[in-house]
Specification:
Elements lengths: L2 E6 L2 E5 L19 H10 L8 E5 L3 E5 L3 E7 L4 E3 L2 E3 L4 E4 L4 E4 L7 E6 L30 E2 L23 E7 L8 H7 L4 E3 L7 E5 L14 E2 L4 E3 L7 E3 L6 E2 L3 E5 L1 H8 L6 E6 L1
Parallel strand pairs: 12-20
Antiparallel strand pairs: 1-4, 1-11, 2-3, 3-10, 4-9, 5-8, 5-10, 6-7, 6-9, 12-19, 13-14, 13-20, 14-17, 15-18, 16-17, 16-19
Length: about 280
């Protein structure tokens, strides 16, 4: 054991960059909801960008080091203490053996990412160490008492100790491409989607972000056969308000997709908190 979990906050999971290319056998990609933040955390400690780290939802993680560790925290900026002393996000931190690292609640954003030099060396499943909360693949969500092994450190040490990163935006604007089933909706629905804000509800998770706002009226009421789904899809169930699919979305769905958020903006969606508003803009 190199790392002992003392507390997890609402949810903490092991994540890497997921299991791409397996949708044909019913396996979703999963991986970090904000992949860019995980990549940055790994770069800061000299890991490969795809090394496994911890995704922390709304802070509250506490760890004890059982060997000297080098770590970095990115994404939603949390208050950080190492052995009771304050530390900065987006920087390289030393956590000596026997000390504790604790995270508070982020003032902005939702998901934070902790990378440990050497990467978390839990057993991979189908080529990935990511926890998929929908399918149950990968390691269980972290809980107090969980022991995490750490891999061998890379040969080279990082040459920077701080990354200048802006906080997640308060006003979230997501670019979206219409379709593939925009023809199942009225033209007024398409105008509504990009005209009014939608509120992130408390029913959101790694599977998808449930939104509350103006109803998107359909022009067709017949049933749609199940078809493939992708990260960023805006699926509209019968109630008429969209759900934005995130990292652990199902690989198929039977409700029409009015549009798909571009891949570059999915990370911004993953950092939006319940009660926050998002705006959509067509490309």
């Amino acid at each position: 054991m190199s790392v002992e979990v003392l507390a997890t906050g609402p949810l903490a999971t092991v994540q890497d960059l997921g299991r791409p290319g397996l949708a044909g056998i019913g396996v979703g990609t999963s991986g970090a909801a904000d992949a860019g933040s995980l990549r940055l955390a790994n770069r800061l400690v000299g890991n490969d960008e795809g090394a496994a780290g911890i995704e922390i939802t709304f802070g509250g993680l506490a760890l004890r080091a059982h060997r000297d560790l080098t770590v970095a925290l990115t994404g939603a900026p949390c208050p950080i203490t190492v052995d009771g002393r304050g530390a900065a996000p987006n920087s390289v931190l030393r956590v000596p053996r026997g000390t504790e690292l604790r995270l508070g609640v982020p003032a902005v954003g939702l998901r934070s990412y902790l990378a440990v030099r050497g990467g978390l060396d839990v057993d991979p499943v189908l080529g990935s160490r990511s926890t998929d909360v929908l399918s149950g693949l990968g390691p269980d969500p972290l809980s107090p008492g969980t022991a995490l092994p750490v891999g061998a450190p890379p040969e080279r040490f990082p040459v920077v100790d701080l990354a200048p990163v802006a906080d997640p935006p308060e006003h979230v604007v997501l670019r979206v491409r219409p379709g593939p089933r925009d023809d199942w909706f009225t033209s007024e629905a398409l105008t509504t989607l990009v005209s009014a804000p939608y509120e992130v509800t408390s029913e959101s998770n790694r599977v998808g972000m449930r939104l509350d706002g103006p109803v998107l009226e359909r022009s067709r009421t017949d049933e749609l056969p199940s078809e493939g789904m992708v990260t960023g899809a805006l699926q509209v169930p019968p109630l008429g308000t969209p759900t934005l699919f995130l990292a652990d979305h199902p690989v198929t769905g039977g409700y029409p997709v009015i549009g798909v958020v571009v891949a570059a903006d999915v990370a911004k969606a993953a950092q939006a908190r319940p009660g926050q508003h998002v705006h959509f803009r067509f490309l």
